[in-house]
Amino acid sequence: MKLGFALPQFHRQAFEVARTAEFAAAVEEAGAASLWVGDRNLAAVNPVVGYGGRGTTIPEELNPAADPFVLLGVAASATRRVLLGSHVIVAPLYPPVQLARSLTTVDLISGGRLLPGFGIGWSPEEFQAAGLDFARRGARMDELLDALDVLWTEDPAGYEGAQLSVPAHHSPLKPARRPRPPFYLGALSERALRRVARRGDGWLPLCVVPSYVDIDGLLAQRALLDRLTREAGRDPEVIDTVLRVNINAGTATSLVADTVRRVHERTGIDHFMIDSMYDADSVDAALALAQDVLKRVDQG
């Protein structure tokens, strides 16, 4: 199994962001396979839509949020082996040229270790702040993936769609990974899973230990994704899975490790991204948690 961990980006860990390089190097040395960021441009005071598209509240842990691209760049320069992923970048918020440039830079610094994970977002206020139509974010995501394909593989590069327009321009700087970094996509609904089936190289589901671990649901989602992928004329085997594991405050690391092993045994998922922002209130605590989980999973 491959275990990855979130970089110090949110909640109290965000205030120790200067220790990102230290954390990244130490977690890599402890045996981690990957390091991850999320994305939160803002957490509205009076949200119309709540966290994950449900309710009307956002966890206070998301109020302080460090920049994901900067953190990935720092981690890239501080490590030599681990993959560097995003679970997830709210991709429709960003102009395609700027998104491609930021991720290309990270991939080059890391020598081709980038795993860009994208989602369409759930916060209308984030889209309002960016001057974008929240209702059209799905269509914008589809065009953004098309635009990234072009920007990462062609020179000169340009794109023209209903949502996005990129003038033809010189584009010699490409990612280290060829023909391009893989597209990992967050998806829960059937509509979102169809996008993964058509366009994704990887799928990013999630669970929360211990409050939401639905292994039967994961198996059902993967079965649906496999069917949709075959209907799209693709082989389901080409779509990788990385499961995000959020940890409720006060959860024992033994339970986290046991849950990872149990999910792996039943689903075959072999790459897990563990996020401690709700549980670890400092970089030292996050590092200790990562080291303990790695040790327990390895011994198990």
SSE order, one letter for each helix or strand:
EHEHEEHEEHHEEEHEEHEEHEH
Cα-based radius of gyration, to the nearest Å: 18 Å
Tally of alpha and pi helices = 9
Shape: globular
Which structural category fits the helices and strands?
alpha/beta
Helix content: 25-40%
What ranges have pLDDT less than 50 throughout 5 or more consecutive residues? none
Cα distance spanning the termini? 11 Å
Provide the β-strand percentage band.
15-25%
Largest sheet: 7 strands, parallel
Gist of the model:
The chain has helices spanning 20-30, 68-78, 96-110, 124-129, 137-153, 190-199, 215-231, 253-267, 283-299; strands at 2-6, 34-37, 83-86, 89-90, 114-115, 117-119, 157-160, 165-169, 184-186, 202-204, 206-209, 240-241, 243-247, 271-275. The protein is of the alpha/beta class.
Walk me through the topology.
Blueprint (H helix, E strand, L loop, with lengths): L1 E5 L13 H11 L3 E4 L30 H11 L4 E4 L2 E2 L5 H15 L3 E2 L1 E3 L4 H6 L7 H17 L3 E4 L4 E5 L14 E3 L3 H10 L2 E3 L1 E4 L5 H17 L8 E2 L1 E5 L5 H15 L3 E5 L7 H17 L1
Parallel strand pairs: 1-2, 1-14, 2-3, 3-5, 4-6, 6-9, 9-10, 10-12, 11-13, 13-14
Antiparallel strand pairs: 7-8
Helix pairs in contact: 1-2, 1-9, 2-3, 3-5, 6-7, 8-9
Keywords: Flavoprotein, FMN, Monooxygenase, Oxidoreductase, Transferase
GO molecular function: alkanesulfonate monooxygenase activity; transferase activity
Protein name: Hydride transferase
